[in-house]
């Protein structure tokens, strides 16, 4: 992981192996030794492979993640895969895990909306792929060429047409959808008014500096014999490219900001605010961005004489996919092989992302979503783990169970923790049938699990809010040991929320403020002027994953959606933005100050429409794209911590 | 509903001493032994009458656990009154008073009125802190003091109102510039301008956040 960078690809076994393969069609089984990261199922045929296809995760040309692009044919479907090289394919200062987040794993080509080819006069060819969901992948740079073959191969397998408007735009499965064209055409890095440049990217630059630290001057360009040259060299093609990428991002950002603002002000009369007006005077014209220009779609011909309000139709197209019914048993089984392994994890995550789970399935699926069970475990393996973990749980539990009265008398920390937990479990969800009534045994189980957890993770201990997170888990698992281990898995990610120094919370609140700045500049300015930039009013949302904002059932549904980590690990932050944007006009219009805002946000509890908000959050996440991701520093919960030193700063115990 | 003044209160003290119950007893006149623990801050509001003037109390109830202090501290700003609560049956909650007081003094405005409440006085048989000790502590630190019970409602009304009366008196004495909202006071309609301060018409906030 500390591997500085790659100067010569020939020492990469993966790369070397691929060279022997060439890029012609061949059976996958002859594929190389190291296929650990991309295991193609039997019977799949590799129809295209190209090495040294890279993305630039940041605006810096020197930051590059290289990998291998493949097209795989299975049955009659074609899938696209791009996997970064293991270990040293990346010159970006990202961990292996972060690098892997960029992986494109077996995306059905039929899910692709368009492919745009870019062949700049200087520099390398690249393509931008936009999915039918509106999601655009980062540009893929073909450092070894091969764009033409890539498109040619696709053309052999799916219906591919060239756009009438733009010879470099290829449309997969003909579509008549003007908005998607809009999105696609957005990717075009040409004719960008200079004014949009630097001002729009300032956020990213500052964030990038933080994120990348010293990774800037690593001579990665040496692979192209540019080593040691000043980065601002006039004719550095890589630099030109990076500028184009930046420009593209700034346009996307601008689009995102304006589109989302417009959508929220025009299509979210949600009935909560009786003073809501349809044509809202508060719709901000972002300074320097006259609103007219936001309708990039304006220049797109409306081919389909669609129903009445074409603007609405157009905008609603990207506004998050409709939610689906929860995943039911029959369909769930279809995601498993005969022995119970999840065959296509990504498809499963996607399915759950869009609809959640039937309640009966939660018990089985939550453990997988949380990573307690591995997705490629079999039924039998899961049963086995369950029994092993049960006795492990009992062992840990016995550590405090066996503390005698005399011992406890001399063990203040234990007594205090136990006292705190006992006080809190009787104040957790007692209105839910599962926990109600006097001497409810489930309340005691809550206590036992939390106390056991505080021994399992003694450094973190117990903190208020944990019982809120555990309650639905115990309710779903209905088994003490299973609930404990699922809770452990959840706390692997959310533990920093409860750090004594609150650093996990602060980093999320910080990322949230950056996201609002990116997606709603004028709301950001409003918060800034009113001394609300600490975003403490979102504290409860983030600390316990919106547990107090929704009905119990809705909370469970939201959690499983968040836990898929589909689209983003940090969807919860986009959810915050989505809610704030819904009420932005009210907040600004009523000139809410810190107190009033906090009160207002608290009182939203029970009034938030989950499905609609999730759709908003999805759309915001897609619109924000890479710029959004760049707002969120690595290691921000629920991302795993960057280094695996001490997970938690030692907590001084407390009774306050 | 309109008011002559709005006072902002904050309730602080160790977790489990009964802060949320006191608030609920005051705002809803009921004791709900089973309710959810407080995450972050919660709100309550009620109108009272002092000197024939309608006064709105806006009360912030905070989470007591130490980890949240860095957050809850920011809510002290602009509070006119604080209820500092301990549990008479748990000695340690009394022992922590000094640290709470230090926090309040550091983060709240200097003229904030602080009421010390020894809660759960219905549990006299389990008493771990004597009334005299409570009185003594209050005296030493210049606080108003009462023992109360959120369960029986004993002294709950009195505690909130006595605090308000003290704030009201300070306004009359000209301690506050009531036009400056950082003192946790807003002037509503027809409020009596303090000798040093606001005019009737000075407030544009009248009824702004009434509920
Ligand atoms: N007997 C008795 N119990 C109380 C009283 N006030 C609160 N409680 C109990 O103390 C527990 C904690 O109260 P709560 O208001 O949640 O404490 P907070 O953490 O300070 O907000 C609850 O279970 C209440 O039932 C009281 O005056 N008398
Ligand atoms: Mg409370």
TrEMBL record, chain A:
Localization of this protein: Cytoplasm
Main location as per UniProt: cytoplasm
UniProt keywords, alphabetically: Acetylation, Cytoplasm, GTPase activation, Phosphoprotein
All residue ranges annotated as the Rab-GAP TBC domain in the record: 356-566
Chain intervals for the UniProt region annotation (Disordered): 20-43, 216-235, 280-310
Record field: compositional bias (Low complexity): 20-36
Family matches, as PANTHER family: SMALL G PROTEIN SIGNALING MODULATOR 2-RELATED (PTHR22957:SF502), TBC1 DOMAIN FAMILY MEMBER GTPASE-ACTIVATING PROTEIN (PTHR22957)
Name of protein: TBC1 domain family member 15
The organism's taxonomic lineage, starting at the top: Eukaryota, Viridiplantae, Streptophyta, Embryophyta, Tracheophyta
TrEMBL record, chain B:
GO cellular component: plasma membrane
SUPFAM superfamilies reported in the protein's UniProt record: P-loop containing nucleoside triphosphate hydrolases
An example Gene Ontology molecular-function term: GTP binding
Membrane topology: Lipid-anchor
Protein's UniProt keywords contain Repeat: no
InterPro entries: P-loop_NTPase, Rab_GTPases_membrane_traffic, Small_GTP-bd, Small_GTPase
Pfam family, one: Ras
This protein's record includes keyword Iron: no
Compartments (UniProt record): Cell membrane
Organism domain of life: Eukaryota
Keywords of this entry: GTP-binding, Lipoprotein, Membrane, Nucleotide-binding, Prenylation
Record function comment: Intracellular vesicle trafficking and protein transport.
UniProt record similarity statement: Belongs to the small GTPase superfamily. Rab family.
Name under which the protein is recorded: Uncharacterized protein
Organism in which the protein naturally occurs: Acacia crassicarpa
């Amino acid at each position: 992981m500390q591997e500085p960078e790659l100067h010569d690809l020939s020492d990469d076994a993966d790369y070397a192996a691929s060279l022997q393969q060439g890029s012609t069609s061949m059976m996958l089984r002859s594929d190389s030794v190291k296929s650990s990261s991309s295991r193609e199922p039997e019977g799949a045929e590799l129809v295209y492979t190209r090495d040294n296809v890279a993305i630039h995760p940041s605006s810096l040309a020197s930051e590059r993640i290289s990998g291998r692009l493949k097209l795989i044919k299975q049955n009659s479907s074609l899938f696209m895969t791009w996997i970064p090289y293991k270990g040293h394919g990346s010159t970006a200062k990202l961990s292996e895990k972060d690098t892997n987040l960029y992986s494109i794993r077996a995306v059905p080509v039929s899910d692709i909306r368009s492919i745009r080819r870019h062949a700049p006069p200087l520099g390398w060819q690249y393509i931008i792929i936009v999915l039918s969901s509106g999601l655009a992948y980062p540009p893929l740079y073909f450092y070894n060429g091969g764009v033409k073959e890539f498109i040619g191969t696709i053309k052999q397998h799916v219906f591919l047409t060239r756009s009438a408007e733009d010879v470099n735009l290829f449309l997969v499965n003909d579509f008549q959808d003007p908005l998607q064209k809009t999105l696609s055409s957005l990717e075009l890095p040409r004719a960008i008014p200079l004014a949009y440049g630097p001002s729009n990217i300032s956020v990213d630059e500052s964030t990038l500096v933080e994120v990348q630290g010293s990774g800037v001057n690593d001579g990665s360009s040496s692979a192209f014999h540019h080593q040691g040259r000043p980065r601002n060299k006039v004719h550095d093609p890589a630099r030109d490219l990076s500028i184009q990428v930046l420009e593209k991002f700034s346009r996307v950002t601008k689009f995102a900001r304006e589109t989302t603002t417009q959508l929220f002000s025009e299509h979210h009369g949600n009935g909560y605010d009786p003073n809501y007006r349809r044509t809202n005077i508060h719709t901000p014209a972002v300074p320097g961005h006259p609103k007219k220009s936001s309708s990039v779609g304006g220049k797109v011909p409306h081919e389909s004489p669609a129903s009445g309000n074409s603007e609405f139709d157009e905008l609603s197209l990207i506004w998050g996919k409709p939610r689906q019914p929860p995943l039911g048993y029959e369909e769930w089984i279809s995601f498993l092989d005969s022995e119970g392994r999840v065959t296509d994890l990504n498809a499963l995550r996607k399915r759950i992302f869009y609809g959640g789970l039937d309640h009966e399935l939660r018990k089985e699926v939550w453990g997988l979503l949380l990573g307690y069970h591995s997705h490629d475990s079999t039924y039998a393996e899961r049963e086995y783990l369950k029994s092993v973990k049960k006795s492990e749980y009992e062992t840990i539990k016995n550590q405090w169970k066996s503390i005698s009265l005399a011992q406890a008398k001399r063990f203040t920390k234990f007594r205090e923790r136990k006292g705190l937990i006992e006080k809190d479990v009787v104040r957790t969800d007692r209105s839910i049938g599962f926990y109600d009534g006097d001497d409810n045994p489930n309340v005691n189980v809550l206590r036992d699990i939390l106390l056991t957890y505080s021994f399992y993770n003694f450094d973190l201990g117990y903190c208020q809010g944990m019982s809120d997170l555990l309650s639905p888990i115990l309710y779903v698992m209905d088994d003490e040991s299973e609930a404990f281990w699922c809770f452990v898995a959840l706390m692997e990610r959310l533990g920093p929320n409860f750090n004594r120094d609150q650093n996990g919370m602060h980093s999320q609140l910080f990322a949230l403020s950056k996201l609002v700045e990116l997606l709603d500049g004028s709301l950001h300015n409003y918060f800034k002027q009113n001394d609300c930039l600490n975003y403490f009013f979102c504290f409860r949302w983030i600390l316990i994953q919106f547990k107090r904002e929704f009905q119990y059932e809705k909370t469970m549904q939201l959690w499983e959606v968040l836990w898929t980590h589909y689209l983003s690990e940090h969807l919860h932050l986009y959810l915050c933005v989505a809610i704030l944007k819904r009420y932005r006009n009210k907040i600004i219009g009523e000139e809410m100050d810190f107190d009033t805002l906090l009160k207002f946000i608290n009182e939203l509890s029970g009034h938030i429409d989950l499905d609609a908000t999730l759709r908003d959050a999805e759309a915001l996440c897609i619109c924000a794209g890479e710029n959004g991701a760049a707002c969120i520093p690595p290691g921000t919960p629920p991302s795993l911590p960057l280094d695996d030193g001490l997970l938690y700063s030692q907590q001084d115990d407390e009774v306050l | 509903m309109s008011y002559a003044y709005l006072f902002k209160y904050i309730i602080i003290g160790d977790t489990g001493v009964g802060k949320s119950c006191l608030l609920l007893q005051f705002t809803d006149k009921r004791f709900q032994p089973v309710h959810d623990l407080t995450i972050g801050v919660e709100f309550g509001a009620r109108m009272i009458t002092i000197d024939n003037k309608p006064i709105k109390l806006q009360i912030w109830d905070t989470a007591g656990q130490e980890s949240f202090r860095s957050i809850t501290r920011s809510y002290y700003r602009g509070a006119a009154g604080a209820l500092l609560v301990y549990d008479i049956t748990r000695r340690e909650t009394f022992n922590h008073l000094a640290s709470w007081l230090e926090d309040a003094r550091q983060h709240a405005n200097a003229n904030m009125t602080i009421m010390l409440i020894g809660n759960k006085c219905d549990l006299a048989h389990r008493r771990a802190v004597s009334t005299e000790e409570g009185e003594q502590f209050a005296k030493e630190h210049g606080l108003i003091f009462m023992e109360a019970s959120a369960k029986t409602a004993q002294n709950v009304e009195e505690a909130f109102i006595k605090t308000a009366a003290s704030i009201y008196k300070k306004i009359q004495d000209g301690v506050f510039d009531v036009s400056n909202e950082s003192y946790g006071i807003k002037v509503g309609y027809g409020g009596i301008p303090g000798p040093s301060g606001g005019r009737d018409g000075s407030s544009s906030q009248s009824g702004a956040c009434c509920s």
